[in-house]
Amino acid sequence: MATKILVTGGTGYIGSHTVVELQEAGFEVVIIDNLSNSNIKVLDGIQAITGIRPVFVEGDCTDMTILRRLFADNPGIKGIINFAASKAVGESVQKPLLYYRNNLNTLMNLLELMPEFGVKGIVFSSSCTVYGEPDVNPIDETAPIKPATSPYGNTKQISEEIITDYVRSGAPIKSIILRYFNPIGAHPSALIGELPLGVPQNLVPYLTQTAAGIRKELTVFGNDYDTPDGTCIRDFIDVVDLAKAHVVAMKRMLDGADTDAIEIFNLGTGTGLSVLRLIESFERATGVKVPHRIGDRRAGDIEQIWAIPAKANEVLGWKADTPIDVTMANAWRWQQSLPKS
Ligand code: WQD
């Protein structure tokens, strides 16, 4: 009997890639998604890759009635991976209450229902944004948590505290918190990938749309930072490598091994790459030039951040090892599969 996992936000970018890896690892997957930032056609892509169509419930995790009905209709869910959240940094500054209500109520609803339905563990999608601008790089999980620079980042910090307090209160659950660095790329099949709505805020989808001629030019937000080439540095991690980490984390939580009730892992490659170096990687990998110019800095950007992934490497036995040029080639193949409009 396959172990059943609930993936909230499972038709989203990281969620869909994680569903594929869960299915390929033998888990049975139930998805709930309100489709506010994704497309139901993603289910076709998942099924085309794995041959298995996940159970799909269209619904909002802030609605306790919908969630309770999902657990009742799908008995035997043993674990949850919670991706369902609003995630645009800039939008969170404009609409803080939407972000606090959506991201925090979603998590609290799930936590409250877990003991009621015998759910053992929850993997939480957190972000390196909880560290703010690190004093030194690279950073491990002991780096200080600085005051959030956006409501989005604050919801991640508060969510981690909510989980911690709930587990410490004696709730019979476990949690693994995964702090992502910068997820990029697409599944090698080009059947699923990033589907930003409107003008992409993140670098790679804007870059691939520029390469495809959908955008006229990529603006590099500043080259006067204190870095080797003046542009910001990030730890860009392949989305499939990231997805695989969730499978390993879920197995660790459910194996009943004597592990801490809460564990936190940085998920990065351990390599910092600048914006200009990433553009070069794309051009090298695809042979396609990306028209770009240097523009002003973007408000809220931190200068540089990249991970020490040693804890995840050693404890989870997981490593992000997809070469950046391969990730860029996958991102391009996915972009070419999309309509030009
Ligand atoms: C990366 C670098 C930009 C666009 C955010 C969130 C993080 C996670 C990922 C949700 C920066 C530069 C970008 C462009 C550019 N979000 N850039 N031109 O800001 O590091 O992380 O998204 O899970 O929590 O904080 O990612 O891709 O927006 O930017 O020069 O058109 O690319 O200045 O240096 P970021 P990003």
Task: Set out the fold topology.
Blueprint: E1 4-8, H1 13-24, E2 28-33, H2 42-50, E3 55-58, H3 64-73, E4 77-82, H4 89-94, H5 96-116, E5 121-127, H6 151-168, E6 174-180, E7 182-184, H7 203-211, E8 218-221, E9 233-234, E10 236-238, H8 239-254, E11 262-267, E12 273-274, H9 275-286, E13 292-295, H10 310-316, H11 324-337
Parallel strand pairs: 1-2, 1-4, 2-3, 4-5, 5-6, 6-11, 7-10, 8-13
Antiparallel strand pairs: 9-12
Helix pairs in contact: 1-2, 1-8, 5-6, 9-11
The structure holds UDP-4-deoxy-4-formamido-beta-L-arabinopyranose.
UDP-4-deoxy-4-formamido-beta-L-arabinopyranose is lined by residues 87, 89, 127, 129, 182, 201-203, 206, 218-221, 232, 234, 275, 298, 301.
